[in-house]
Amino acid sequence: METTQALQDKRALVLGATGGIGSELARQLRDAGWEVKALTRRPGAEGERDGIVWINGDAMDRESVVAAARGCSVIVHGVNPPGYRRWSELVLPMVDNTIAAAQAVGATIVLPGTVYNYGPDAFPLLKEDSPQRPSTRKGAIRVELERRLQAATARGVRTIVVRAGDFFGPHIGNSWFSQGLVTGGRPVKAVSIPGRPGVGHAWSYVPDVARTMLSLIERRETLDPFATFHMAGHWDEDGTQMAHAIRAVAERHGMRPRLRRFPWWLVRLASPFVPTLRELMEMRYLWRVPVQLSNARINEVLGGEPHTPLDVAVEATLKGVGCLS
């Protein structure tokens, strides 16, 4: 019979379990033998479904987060405000609540990071110790978020941060892949290319990111109290390889999509009237310059990075977002 400590070592709370990376990591933790709890704001959604225990609560409510985290050794902080909106109001209070819960129960925090932390002086190749001088409001918020996590190590809170490129995958929901390159829920008639010609872009397949996080979670006691890692993911060297991969998969399914430039001009015109598009314009700089991540540290710690072949990952994603029958 397992001891109480052993059971706690295999319990995790996932915040943002309905999102892309949160849901994928919750499933992989479950399949690896973990007892997984997830916070939900939906009334009446509590209970066990598919091996995950759903608990009513809100990431903005500290008492809810602390109560849900009891008995857990890991808290996955995969929650973000939807549609880029209200970051200044929600992002930092939510991470403060996660820190409080981790301190109360002795859990390690796992954070899906972003490249927003970095500004032009850190490009084109990002390493974990590259300077963090962002040029956007969201970037400044992400820097402060990680600063608070790092400061919490003085109170015994441990954190693992995994930064990666743009997410894509079968359960990703809102993403550049499903809303910018193709239109989710419809056959692929056209594939948009958001970047400048010849400008590389980093993509990360969500199941690979979750597998990396799971491997790091299993080694958490051997890592630094504030441990950061970068994933190389799929490097699109000229900014068109992802679009060509989508078209190739679509053609195998009998479609004949065309490639086209992403209509940034239309986003600019509509942005004064649509908050989400206004926030999108702020992040356009990431499509104007090459942004690549070095995974040397992951290779050193894990002996390699999980890497699903691009055509396999693209086909699974297109099926998942409803573009293939």
Automatic annotation (TrEMBL):
GO MF terms held by the record: aldehyde dehydrogenase (NAD+) activity
Gene3D superfamilies: NAD(P)-binding Rossmann-like Domain
Cited SUPFAM superfamilies: NAD(P)-binding Rossmann-fold domains
GO CC aspect terms: cytoplasm
Domain of life: Bacteria
Record domain NAD-dependent epimerase/dehydratase: where: 12-223
One Pfam family from the record: Epimerase
Record protein name field: NAD-dependent epimerase/dehydratase family protein
Species per Swiss-Prot/TrEMBL record: Trinickia dinghuensis
